[in-house]
Specification:
The chain is globular and about 50 Å long. The strands form two sheets. Strands 3-2-1-4-5-6 form a six-stranded parallel beta sheet, with helices on both faces. It has a two-stranded parallel sheet with strand order 7-8. Helices cover 39% and strands 16% of the residues. It is of the alpha/beta class and 258 residues long. The chain folds into two domains: 212 residues, Rossmann fold (3-Layer(aba) Sandwich); 32 residues, no CATH class. Its cofactor is Zn(2+). It comes from Vreelandella sulfidaeris. This is Alcohol dehydrogenase-like C-terminal domain-containing protein.
Length: 258
């Protein structure tokens, strides 16, 4: 338990309890130094906080990779250069934007729910058959209902792109969740590029005091990531809209009745 100062709003506290520390952990694990270029794969709430945190740690350029335009728009608001993998190949784009070198650091904020590209250059160059086999192996029972949650159809896609898009001797931070049975990782490519890997679950207690300091100093406002606010009786409908990844539903706040 951590006592929050009265100056921390409820909206800020919501983000500080989990998604902000996780994003900061991902940026910290990426070993970001002043001026580094950083690729963040996945622009959900955790990925957005990874972008914020990379900037706080001194990153010179941050590239945000996703396919959802609302998430990319939010990433751009936070100062990232955005790449829609349904429109352009993220690896080729990262290399082009870094003079053919690749980024210094990469953060996988997606995990097992990664999607492969369905359109454009990235779709043409992807190994869709292998990705589909991985999906069947790692999520054989989906328990889906209508248009609600669907598992990712490219479980290792973010990892593949991250490793390919990194510069030699770069660092890959993995905070996206993978199940114990997941075994697909491009170890050969990572080893031959002398990459450093850091991954794991966030030790929230370690980071929250630092994030409180940054918030009180007006270096960051965690509440900016919240995109929806609904009353508790609307919780079911809110969860369903979030599950469908409807436009604008990135992080949802549920308000208790007063």
């Amino acid at each position: 338990m951590i006592k929050l100062p009265d100056e921390i709003s409820d909206d800020q506290a919501i983000a500080m309890s989990d998604i902000f520390p996780t994003g900061y952990f991902g940026a910290d694990a990426a070993e970001i130094k002043d001026g580094d270029s950083v690729a963040v794969f996945g622009c959900g709430a955790v990925g957005l906080f990874a972008i914020v945190s990379a900037k706080l740690l001194g990153a010179g350029r941050v590239f945000a990779i996703d396919s959802k335009q609302d998430r990319l728009d939010k990433a751009r608001e936070l100062g990232a250069e955005v790449i829609n993998y349904e429109r352009e190949d993220p690896v080729e784009t990262l290399k082009r934007l870094t003079g053919g070198i690749g980024t210094d650091r990469a953060i996988d904020a997606v995990g097992i729910d990664a999607q492969h590209a369905h359109h454009g250059e990235a779709a043409e160059s992807g190994d869709i058959q292998t990705q589909e086999q991985e999906a069947r192996s790692n999520a054989p029972d989906t328990n889906t209902s209508g248009d609600l949650w669907q598992p990712g159809d490219g479980p290792s896609q973010a990892l593949q792109w991250a490793v390919e898009g990194l510069a030699k001797a770069g660092t890959l931070s993995i905070i996206g969740v993978y199940p114990p049975q997941f075994r697909a990782f491009p170890i050969g490519a990572a080893m031959n590029k002398n990459l450093t890997l850091h991954m794991g679950n966030c030790p929230h207690r370690k980071y929250i005091p630092k994030l409180i300091e940054l918030t009180l100093a007006n270096k960051v406002d965690p509440a900016k990531i919240l995109t929806q606010s609904h009353k508790m009786p609307d919780a079911l409908q809110a969860f369903e809209a979030f599950d469908r990844r409807e436009n604008g539903w990135i992080k949802v706040e549920l308000l208790p009745q007063t």
